[in-house]
Amino acid sequence: MKTEFLIRDAIALDMAGIARVHTEGWRTGYAGIMPEEFLRGRSVEKSRALWEKKFAEQSGLILVAERGGGICGFVSGGKAREGLPGFDSELYAIYVDQNARGLGAGAALLGAFFGRQAALGARSCALWVLEENPSRKFYEKLGGELLPLRKPCQFGGKPLVEVAYGWRALRAGSLFS
Ligand SMILES: CC(C)(COP(=O)(O)OP(=O)(O)OC[C@H]1O[C@@H](n2cnc3c(N)ncnc32)[C@H](O)[C@@H]1OP(=O)(O)O)[C@@H](O)C(=O)NCCC(=O)NCCS
Fold it and tell me: Residue 51's pLDDT is what?
């Protein structure tokens, strides 16, 4: 049976929790993919400042997943940025606490995000993910189509490649949960 998560819009006070989940998500999710020293250099404080700025700009959608009164995951996104032809919205980041993974929070966040984007008028959504990231399977499981797009990137001096997944027919209302 799937665990129940409350999915809601983020408020300003959530930025500290989002920064914690995000920073831990990088440390645990990208260990062995990005250089260790680079990952150790990521700080919750710096991340919090960036999330507070992003929230204040109100330029996109940020949803959080709560369990037992605390934030255990988030998703953020908005208009598709350059390089995703044919897609009008983009998921910029989705992270779930390591101890809450595999319980349905990610699917609930993704479904709610797509539903909200559709309600805002988006017809499709795409995202970039590191080619080596095992979380790619999550997107495949949830119907993402591997797009014929590749983008070189660099983290901590290490050259890596991002690939893209797309969903071409969003509909209003939450999917997957
Ligand atoms: C990717 C992530 C958000 C998924 O969240 P989650 O809460 O663990 O996902 P769910 O429990 O909702 O999983 C939904 C389905 O995807 C599958 N899935 C999730 N992660 C998977 C993985 N790494 N490999 C294979 N399948 C996976 C689950 O088994 C589940 O399938 P089921 O319905 O048949 O049981 C989470 O693993 C995470 O935060 N990863 C690290 C950060 C990251 O890489 N984010 C993506 C950046 S682009």
Answer: 98
